[in-house]
Amino acid sequence: MPTGVALRDVREQLFGAAERIVLHDGPNALTSRAVTAEAGCAKGVLHRHFADFDAFLAEFVLDRIARLAPEAEALREAAGTGTLADNLTSALTSLFESVAVAIVALITSRDGLRARLRETLPAGVPVLTEAAGMIAAYLTAERDLGRLDACADVDALAPALIGAAHLLFADRTAAPPEPEAVRRMVTTVLAGAVREP
Question: What is the assigned CATH class of domain 1-49?
Answer without folding.
Answer: mainly alpha
